[in-house]
Amino acid sequence: MLKITNLTKIYKINSSFFEKQKKFVALDNISFELKDNEVLSVIGESGSGKSTLAKIICRLIPFDFGNIEINGKNISDYSKIEFANTVQMIFQNPYASFNPKLKIGYSLLEAVDKNIKNKRDFIIEKLKLVGIEDDVFTKYPHQFSGGQRQRIAISRALLREPKFLIADEPFSSLDIINQNIIMEIFEKIKKEKRTNLIFITHDISAAKKISDKILALKYEKMYNV
Asked: 17-24 contacts: CB < 8 A, separation 24 or more?
């Protein structure tokens, strides 16, 4: 279970010598819970803090106030490996998800826990879940479309078999066909893997389709310090 209490994130913005420093309250006292096998959609306009929330939960950026617990344990108390096996993130841009100089197979093998035996078979299992053939091993990222790259990115996140999967606007740059494919994959993951999903989106109709809960964030104001 994920429990977030009174989460606040403030960005300080440097200005010129003649102006006061300003602060932007990206998240203001946010609280919610996500139980086992639930999907939470986080919606809101641009600048409302959706991506900031995702990055905080993934420990990519710090927060100023509040508390975040996963299964009763503060996220700061997880080791790096333990946290990677608990939370994984799928980013918005499928074209920036992989090193263009490395073959897909290498990128996927690097993501597998060292204790997993038969790593190749384990990867193929995850690729099949997202509808990708195993011939990806010898290919480079540029040989795949945006939709295919996003599906491969999802399979890579699943290699750690995380309890929580966070998808930050995962199909905002994709066409409607690939958007529907990705949505079906998320529904399949929830059903077959019982993985909790936090789905960051500005698409209310998509949120309603997949979610058990919806968290709506609003744009906060900028203040002079």
From this structure: 20/224, 20/225, 21/224, 21/225, 22/222, 22/223, 22/224, 22/225, 23/222, 23/223, 23/224, 23/225, 24/220, 24/221, 24/222, 24/223
